[in-house]
């Protein structure tokens, strides 16, 4: 993989910029990273906020030969890569909360935003990630940083380089059925969500059950009254802590 890394001191959102490039046919391996985002985005119009220089804020353009329904696996691949990079550089081993958070205990260390882009060059996925390095996120949010968890100071660019190494390895896995199965297994091992009680809000129904695993396309498999059902990241899923669940 040839990485083409674009650095911005300040930008509205690395995901927005890279999605625009992807539409114009930018090649796989284009990466944007910024010291500061003035309009960092989370999912569902939420905001991602980090003071200048305190986080790795980056977006990676991938064009795996997967169908639209499987592209979520590419987001999982980046989440697992971020986890592996953090272990290498700081010893912090976050767990993953489905679909897209890296947690230490109940506190959010990083968030991912995957966006599918249709372009003349075919389907692409822009995977954005924000990892708190020296600042533990906005007030009132249950969040933490690598510095708080390990005492280790990591420069954003150093983490980006290791992250891209890890992504290169998992990107290759996306190309074969065996590779995707090994990614799925790594994903299940990292997910703290499994075994937990979850509440799924569909457009016109609410379901609850116990998360049991992820299927071949990265959907969450939930045991709902003895029947296994799969849900994708578009369904709004509320995860309750084990404490809350045990009070049921
Ligand atoms: C996410 O959304 O967790 C995805 C965040 C993706 C951010 C990256 S940064 C580079 C790239 N460019 C972008 O514009 N975005 C991506 P979500 O699950 O919706 O979580 C958003 C929620 O996380 C907010 O509503 C806050 O409660 C919380 N939050 C905001 N900033 C945070 C921070 N620095 N650390 C921890 N939590 C934060």
3D architecture notes:
The protein has helices at 14-23, 72-90, 146-150, 156-173, 177-190, 242-246; strands at residues 4-11, 30-37, 55-62, 95-97, 101-104, 107-119, 122-132, 197-202, 205-214, 220-224, 227-231, 236-239. It is an alpha+beta fold and 248 residues long. The protein has 2 domains: 4-190, BirA Bifunctional Protein, domain 2; 197-247, SH3 type barrels. The strands form 2 sheets. It has a 7-stranded mixed β-sheet, with helices on both faces. The protein has a 5-stranded antiparallel β-sheet with strand order 11-10-9-8-12. The N and C termini lie far apart (49 Å). The relative contact order is 0.15. Mean pLDDT is 92; it is low at 242-248. The structure holds biotinyl-5-AMP. Biotinyl-5-AMP binds at residues 13-15, 37, 40-44, 46-50, 57-59, 100-101, 108, 111-113, 128-130, 132, 137-138, 141, 143.
Task: Sum up the overall morphology in one term.
Answer: globular
Helix content class: 25-40%
CATH topology of the largest domain: BirA Bifunctional Protein, domain 2
CATH class category of the largest domain:
Alpha Beta
Q: Tell how many strands the DSSP assignment holds.
A: 12
Q: Determine the N-to-C terminus distance.
A: 49 Å
Q: What value does the average pLDDT take?
A: 92
Q: How would a textbook summarize the main sheet? A: 7 strands, mixed
Segments where pLDDT lies below 50 for 5+ residues? Answer: 242-248
């Amino acid at each position: 993989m040839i990485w083409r890394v674009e650095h911005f001191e300040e930008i509205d959102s690395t995901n927005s910029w890279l999605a625009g490039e992807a539409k114009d046919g930018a090649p796989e391996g284009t990466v944007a990273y910024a010291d500061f985002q003035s309009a960092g985005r989370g999912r569902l119009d939420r905001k991602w906020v980090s003071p200048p220089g305190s986080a790795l804020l980056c977006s990676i353009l991938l064009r795996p030969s997967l169908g639209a329904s499987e592209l979520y696996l590419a987001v999982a691949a980046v989440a697992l890569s971020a986890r592996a990079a953090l272990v290498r550089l700081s010893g912090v081993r976050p767990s993953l909360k489905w679909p897209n958070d890296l947690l230490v205990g109940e506190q959010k260390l990083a968030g991912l935003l995957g966006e599918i882009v249709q372009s003349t060059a075919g389907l692409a996925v822009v995977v954005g990630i924000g990892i708190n390095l020296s600042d533990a996120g906005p007030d009132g949010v249950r969040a933490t940083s690598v510095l708080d968890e390990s005492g280790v100071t990591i420069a954003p660019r150093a983490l980006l380089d290791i992250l891209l190494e890890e992504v290169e390895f998992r990107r290759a896995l996306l190309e074969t059925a065996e590779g995707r199965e090994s990614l799925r297994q790594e994903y299940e091992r990292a997910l703290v969500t499994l075994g937990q009680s979850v509440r799924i809000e569909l457009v016109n129904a609410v379901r609850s059950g116990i998360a049991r695993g992820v299927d071949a396309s990265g959907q969450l498999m939930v045991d709902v009254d003895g029947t296994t059902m799969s849900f994708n990241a578009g369904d709004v899923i509320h995860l309750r802590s084990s404490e809350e669940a045990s009070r049921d």
